[in-house]
Amino acid sequence: MSRRDAYLDAAMRRFVDHGYVGTSMDMLVADVGGSKATLYRHFPTKADLVRGLMERVASTIGSEEYDAAESTASLEEELTAIGRRACSGVWSESAAAVLRLTLGEYNRFPELARTVWESGPTRTYANFHAFVAERERRGEVDVDDPQIAAEQFLGGIVGHQQLKIAFGLAEPPTEDETEARVREAVRGFVLRYGVEAPVA
Fold first, then answer.
1. What is the rounded distance in angstroms from the CA atom of residue 150 to the CA atom of residue 144?
2. How many domains does the chain have?
3. Enclosing H/E stretch for 87
4. Cβ of 132: how many Cβ atoms within 10 Å?
5. Has residue 159 got a pLDDT over 90?
6. Widest CA span in the chain
7. Nearest-angstrom CA–CA distance, 36 and 148
8. Do 90 and 184 fall within a single domain?
């Protein structure tokens, strides 16, 4: 494990146990070792630690930049992959912990919300927009508003379940339940936005 990942793991544990305010950089150095200079090289502020945690969740979801034109998967296959990644990331304990932290500290540190949003959902939506634009170029879909389409598709899968998990009211859905959610979301997207192939 890299020193950077070790700091992120320690930050997650400390944020869960002590909250944002109650966690100090000294605690993380004590947990991981090294020096404060080393920690500050990776994460100059606690907000940067939260950004790092969210970026790690986002990489699971598939929020890193990608080239939509490179995909050789069918429309349904690509949507299914996007949906599965969203579930894997958003329903993870890390994502739940970051959401709880952000909501709990919003009044004192509203900038955390922007950090989390820009490190995760903003990238996810940008990638979905790129996906839609490419599939429109291929003549597979006709989408009036890519943002609405993205919110309907992704929100329809993770939706309230994300909040229930973060609030401790539910466990993440099983693999079968996840597949059912993704399958219905893909079906709904294709029915709403798919373009039928011309009859030869």
1. 11
2. 2
3. helix 75-90
4. 23
5. no
6. 69
7. 44
8. yes
198 vs 168: CA distance, rounded Å: 49
Expressed as residue numbers, the domain containing 6 is 1-44
**Mean predicted confidence (pLDDT) in 114-138:** 91
What share of residues in the chain are helix, strand, coil (percent, to 5)?
75, 0, 25
Measured CA angle at 29 (ends 27, 33), to 5 deg? 135
Among 97, 31, 44, 86, which residue's Cα sits nearest to residue 63?
A: 86
Closest residue by Cα to residue 85 from 199, 189, 178, 190: 178
Tracing tokens 């939509």 back to the chain, one arrives at: 68
Q: What percent of the chain has pLDDT over 70?
A: 94
Highest mean pLDDT among 86-90, 99-103, 135-139: 135-139
- Nearest alpha carbon to residue 57 among 94, 87, 85: 94
Tokens representing 170?
């539910």
For residue 160, give the CATH number of its domain: 1.10.357.10
Q: Tell me whether residue 79 is in a domain.
A: yes
